[in-house]
Amino acid sequence: MPVLASLTRSVRDAVQGIWREAATFGVVGALAFVVDNGGYNLLVFGLPGEGGDGVMRTAPVQASVLATAAAALFSWVGNRYWTYRHRHRENVARELALFLVANGVGLAITAGTVFASRQLLGLDSALSDNTARVFGWVLATLFRFYTYRRYVFVAP
Length: 156
What we know:
Number of strands: 0
Structural class: mainly alpha
Mean pLDDT: 85
């Protein structure tokens, strides 16, 4: 029976650790989502009530790339110094490079959904853009969580 109790305790501790990590990752991600979507909407649609013309109204995919890049920088700082603070690599440059590669793929996923919405489906409203971005964000977030745990912020 002590083996079963030990195994149960180990599984419980692992699940609690993952949930704690997922929760902090989620908070950082939610804030990065605000930076990303808020930045995108400001760039493409301007300030609310200002007529709907942002400085990048004619370049929504590039605006998505810019907003996602700003959110990625925010996310790296939040994840490195909070979510994965106990998993720092000795080589920060390598960690950042892996993070940027993972976020490059995430950025392509998010921008790809905007591209598909605009170019393949012919949709160009704020609602369709934001729906496409939320869908892309969900897919990219799942990819990032796996990649960060597995490759970027590995245990020492």
